[in-house]
Design goal:
Two copies of one chain form a homodimer. Chain A has helices spanning 3-11, 53-71, 89-105, 155-164, 173-184, 190-195, 210-221, 236-244, 247-256, 269-276; strands spanning 28-30, 34-42, 74-84, 109-117, 122-130, 146-149, 202-205, 223-228, 263-267, 282-289, 292-296. The first copy, chain A, is an alpha+beta fold. The first copy, chain A, has a six-stranded mixed β-sheet with strand order 7-9-6-10-8-11, with helices on both faces. A five-stranded mixed β-sheet of chain A has the order 1-2-5-3-4, covered by helices on one side. In chain A, helix 4 (155-164) packs across helix 5 (173-184). Chain A starts with a helix and ends in a 17-residue tail after the last strand. Chains A and B meet through helix 1, strand 2, strand 3, helix 3 and strand 4 of A and helix 1, strand 2, strand 3, helix 3 and strand 4 of B.
Chain lengths: 313, 313
Amino acid sequence: MHEKEIIRKFFAPLANNKESYGLKNDAALINQNIVVSTDMMVEDYHFKKNDDPEKLAQKLIRINLSDLAAMGSKPYGYVLNIAIPHSELAWIKRFSDGLKKDSKKFKLKLFGGDLSKSKKIFLSLTIFGKKKGKVHSENKAEVASDIFVTGNIGDAAIGYNLLYNHKKINCSKSLKSYFTKKFLLPEPRIKFGQDLLGKVDFCTDVSDGLYEELLCVSENSNLQAVIFLDSIPFSIEAKEILKKNNKTKMLNIMLGGGEDYELLFSSSKRFNNSLKINKDYIKIGYFDKGNGVKFVDSNHENIPINIKSFSHF
Amino acid sequence: MHEKEIIRKFFAPLANNKESYGLKNDAALINQNIVVSTDMMVEDYHFKKNDDPEKLAQKLIRINLSDLAAMGSKPYGYVLNIAIPHSELAWIKRFSDGLKKDSKKFKLKLFGGDLSKSKKIFLSLTIFGKKKGKVHSENKAEVASDIFVTGNIGDAAIGYNLLYNHKKINCSKSLKSYFTKKFLLPEPRIKFGQDLLGKVDFCTDVSDGLYEELLCVSENSNLQAVIFLDSIPFSIEAKEILKKNNKTKMLNIMLGGGEDYELLFSSSKRFNNSLKINKDYIKIGYFDKGNGVKFVDSNHENIPINIKSFSHF
């Protein structure tokens, strides 16, 4: 059973309230003014014991911040749960250094938490944002709306695979450090999320991979996402990797893998003029009648490519 | 390094904000109206794989609710993180049944969450309450205030030790089921916490054991908690166990062990009249000048007993 099915079957029935948006949004809106999201990182699945604890703390904060960005809300604070072997004092110290750095950078307050013993490290953070007038409340698009992303897709997934050797990728040492940094230290698009309030159909972060996020929105909207494969922004570095490796395999990693934390949104024609002047918003396709995700070339010809979504569960 | 020291050294500096109460309270108060607390349960440390998932879900909700009770706030909702092996679908189903039961009982809404793979089960819940006019904001007492608890102390800690055989206790089978139930299904004192608003110096739940909680408040207040050992309410069942086992060992379990989830509070004389009419508030001592916790008999004579606090870290 896939993560989404489990949530739909066992947890959505408990979330029959307006705050949760049916568990289909990036975050909840409680008390009409506080945005809440939660995310965890588990040793051996999201990171390895030897990874730098300072960076892990920053990543934990940033993946949660990305959900606030996708809601267009302003960072406020967080609570934190850490389960860890008792001996790991140096780890905790360095982890708290990372928290300090990003708490300052993103103006976040620590509100509380819990510390427990465990054999493997388990990190859980719940983040709070303040509503700025409105929020991006539903991941639902309109027909004929254009689809945009805020930056390069796939770098983080390449970094993940290089770091943990999940899929063998042919890559030089200098490029490897570029990709792993993209994976370890994502940049939450807080300002973009706020700027887009009131201008878009929906806004979400690409945390589960571009393909999976498009699939979700298509399902929620009963529409088909038509994507110009050549319009998806890839970094110069990713393009180099694409040349040196099997293209289908690499596209699967880059479009199916997650952790990019760019924003994905769609906008109907009436808003496009104000969006077009911003070079940070890259148009990659549009919504049409139908369902699922279709990749096409610039002549709107179907490109047969089978992407498999990556899941942490 | 003890849990409290780690929090003081590495996390309190990040929590230099009014919302967190310096991490010394049962919960935070964010946006001036939402009470937030978070707690986790880790396989092998807080529970065993074979424990009934339905009861674990209820316990996870209730230990968090107890923090809302200690703040005097009204239950609102929660977000939930679960890390679990992929094969445990039946476990998840039964766990969600428990969530459903107690969400209904305590009028709690599920707002969101995250599901991840892991070898061992990790559960993390962040709970939200609404402020009812005011909250129990600081765990600080006044000199000469009387100390009260809302119910029996020690049953849950006996249950914990019986269930997981941490400390050998001589106990009949029928009594064992009484104690394990007390451990597995605590009753959060939500109504008491609300009733006490404005009438007490402080209010906290006895989640870390009576001794440890008294020690914390004494430290925060620069006072000594003087406790009449014979006034501490023990259940008939616990008294029977006390008779059949080494008394010092049992008192260490009952006063040093946690998970009772009764409320502990103190009240200055001016409020005592309104409290005395409530038979649910049991007076166990008072605060005096000095520091630490002192156990005395009814003649105020010192009872030399060395209690060691239990810690999950």
